[in-house]
Design a protein that fits this description.
The chain is α/β, with parallel strands linked by helices and 137 residues long. The chain has a single domain, classed as STAS domain (Transcription Regulator spoIIAA), CATH 3.30.750. The protein is 47% helix and 20% strand. A 5-stranded mixed β-sheet has the order 1-2-3-4-5, sandwiched between helices. Helix 3 (80-92) links the parallel strand 4 and strand 5 (96-99).
Length: 137
């Protein structure tokens, strides 16, 4: 059962996660994003209403593989622990910010998305959430 779906269009990447631990393949797909030449230009939306968080080892591996480059990222989650972790990361990597799921407009504004990019994200998040729900059932 998948715990993560990723879609991208241009500089925008949408990750929708169900809060369960990533499979090794899912984690590798996240790390593969860091190989993109345009990493610093990416705008990443992570939607995780369940409040899942990557492990300390995964955070270290992710930051190490990015090698100082960091995309702008908005993490939408209802999990207080996950938001706290994002806030802690933001102390060192200020291009990431946590938002409650109902703050989608604020998160997309933070990322400075174009109208076309906003339309893509607002179309993809519910679609990917639906895919996670269907795969779980």
């Amino acid at each position: 059962m998948p715990n993560l779906f990723i879609e991208s269009q241009g500089r925008v990447v949408v990750l929708v996660h169900n809060g369960l631990p990533y499979s090794p393949e899912e984690w590798q797909s996240i790390l593969a994003l860091t190989a993109r030449a345009d990493l610093g230009e990416l705008r990443v939306v992570v939607h995780d209403e369940e409040g899942g968080a990557i492990t300390t080892a995964q955070r270290r591996e992710l930051l190490d593989t990015m090698g100082g480059r960091m995309p702008m990222a908005a993490v939408l989650t209802s999990g207080r622990i996950a938001r706290g972790i994002v806030t802690a990361i933001a102390w060192f990597k200020p291009s990431i910010k946590a938002f409650a799921p109902e703050q989608m407009d604020k998160a997309l504004g933070y990322l400075g998305l174009t109208e076309r990019e906003v339309a893509f994200v607002t179309r993809m998040v519910p679609r990917l959430r639906d895919q996670l729900t269907r795969k779980a059932g």
